[in-house]
Amino acid sequence: MTLCIVGAGAMGRWVAETVAAAPAFDADLAFADTDGGAAADAAAAFDAAATVPLADGTPEDDRTFETVCLAVPIPAVEDAVAAWAPHAEAAMLDLSGVMAGPVAAMREQLPDRERASLHPLFAPQRAPGNVALVADAVGPTLTPLLDALRDAGNELFETTPEEHDDAMRTVQAKSHAAVLAWALAGDDVREEFHTPVSAGLADIAATVTEGDARVYADIQDAFGGADAVAEAARAVADADGEAFADLYAEAGASADALSTEGER
Which of 93, 130, 147, 189 is the most buried (most CB within 10 A)? Predict the structure, then answer.
């Protein structure tokens, strides 16, 4: 397979590393990025045959590839689908982190080719992990690539664009907003004062803030959620004893529903 990875950042490199390590998957890689140096570095790291010169994110030549993988920021993905559709001979997939828009764009731009949207629910350095998958039109071209991701230990689970994007409002946008707000509102305290709750929140805040601020901003713009978190915090702040007890019970019921362990 000839595979062009558009976006030579951490997620694009994760795709390249994963497929390159799969013994049953044979791919000739190429990279494209608005940062030509990043594309060249990625190509050198993976012994890729080529980099693709770009003008404002659009390929400057008419080169084509069997599969194009879009690992671009959320705000750029729909334009990237349109720009790269003529260069995808058989298939396109995206890993932008949003699904409704890219899937609709791929259906419009590539109606007769294979299409999939994936969202690795982890930072690349924490791979393998769960990968949300919309297998919109998967056939003999994309199946070996998806199998390579599974063979690397990732758990691919199928969803719909709507279910995914609704879930991201809670598991990403609202979670990040709550953690960042806690970190911004907190004061310095001696380590001995930390409770299991505050220590856990401190560790989570450290994880969130070690990433790329632009990525987190894109998630907030795409899914919202911060306003809902702020409203909930204000309700807690304004509550008297009886109202607080009601909110506490409501939060407990919500926590039970959100729990990944089934019971607390």
Answer: 93
- Do 144 and 240 lie in one domain? The reply is no
Domain membership of residue 114 (yes or no) is yes
pLDDT in tens, 162-210: 999 999 999 999 999 999 999 999 999 999 999 999 999 999 999 999 9
Q: How far is CA 40 from CA 16, 47, 53, 54, in A?
A: 14, 10, 10, 12
C-alpha to C-alpha distance for 147 and 188, rounded to whole angstroms: 47
By residue range, what is the domain housing residue 220?
163-258
User: 70 forms bridges with which residues in the sheet?
Assistant: 6, 94
For the stretch 17-36, pLDDT in tens is 999 999 888 889 999 998 88
Q: Would you say residue 264 lies in a domain?
A: no
In this structure, the answer to whether residues 151 and 242 fall within a common structural domain is: no
In terms of Cα–Cα distance, which of 240, 25, 3, 56 is closest to 147?
Answer: 25
